[in-house]
Write a structure and sequence with these properties.
The chain contains ten helices and ten strands. The protein is α/β, with parallel strands linked by helices. The chain has a domain of 164 residues: P-loop containing nucleotide triphosphate hydrolases (Rossmann fold, 3-Layer(aba) Sandwich), CATH 3.40.50.300. The protein has a six-stranded mixed β-sheet, sandwiched between helices. Strands 2-1-4-5 form a four-stranded antiparallel β-sheet, covered by helices on one side. Helix 7 links the parallel strand 7 and strand 8. Helix 3 runs parallel beside helix 6. The radius of gyration is 17 Å and the shape is globular. The termini are far apart.
């Protein structure tokens, strides 16, 4: 029997008087990769920001691991095991790679073990070479690797990934998605927002499609990939 790790029910979010989300419902089961696709401005980032506590919905509820987290502060949500890798990466550019990784675990009550660093360096070997470098000197792809790695240092049971392939070269996109699959295979549940709809649907188990602040489709990725409507709108076909 599958276990629901995240349940979003009827959330509404507005920026001032401008509505951004109109009653969003979505669920993520333990161990899944679920993707959220849609055009720019559809509300995908707003959905993730609401889940991680950066935005407070004016209506609806968000449950994580059976606890209501609607309106809970972001650092408390992170401490519960839900890590958010924002669009634009959000690393501390003036700090070293090592310091960024250390900060990822600042809410933990235990110390980061060497085995956890080893795991990161297995996923992203280049970070080991760059460990003493200032993060602002990394390439865009390396910064994305660091952002994901920093989130993993919090030992999350679930990761929210917002546009992990944005602005990256095709080869780097392949690397990032390979690692997303590896992280998931090791037991981390993932909710993925991604502009590259084809890549997202090839990686995830299930997908939601958003249009102007509403969910319009919720299907297995196999069904979405085969849909003429989805092909025409998002897959260039």
């Amino acid at each position: 029997m599958s276990e629901t790790i995240l349940a979003v029910k009827g959330i509404e979010v507005a920026y001032g008087q401008i509505p951004a989300l109109h009653g969003i419902d979505l669920e993520v089961q333990k161990g899944e990769i679920v993707c959220l696709i849609g055009a720019n401005g559809a509300g995908k980032t707003t959905t993730l920001r609401s889940i991680s506590g950066l935005l407070k919905p004016r209506k609806g509820t968000i449950d994580f691991l059976g606890k209501v987290i609607t309106g809970v502060k972001p650092h408390i949500i992170t401490g519960m095991g839900l890590s958010h890798v924002p669009e634009g990466r959000g690393i501390f550019a003036n700090l070293t790679v090592h310091d960024n990784l250390e900060l990822g675990g600042y809410l933990r009550k235990d110390k980061i073990k060497q085995s956890e660093y080893d795991r990161i360096f297995t996923l992203f070997p280049v970070l080991k070479e760059r460990i003493k470098q200032n993060s602002g000197t990394l390439s865009g792809g390396e910064q994305q690797m660091l952002a994901i790695s920093r989130a993993l240092m919090a030992k999350p049971s679930m990761l929210l990934l917002d546009e992990p392939s944005l602005g990256l070269a095709p080869q780097m996109v392949q690397t990032i998605f390979r690692v997303i699959r590896e992280i998931n295979a090791e037991g981390t549940t993932i909710l993925l927002v991604e502009q590259n709809a084809h890549m997202a649907l090839m990686t995830a188990n299930r997908g939601y499609v958003m249009e102007t602040g509403r969910i319009t489709h919720s299907e297995s990725t196999k069904t979405l990939l085969a849909s003429d409507v989805i092909k025409k709108a998002y897959l260039g076909g």
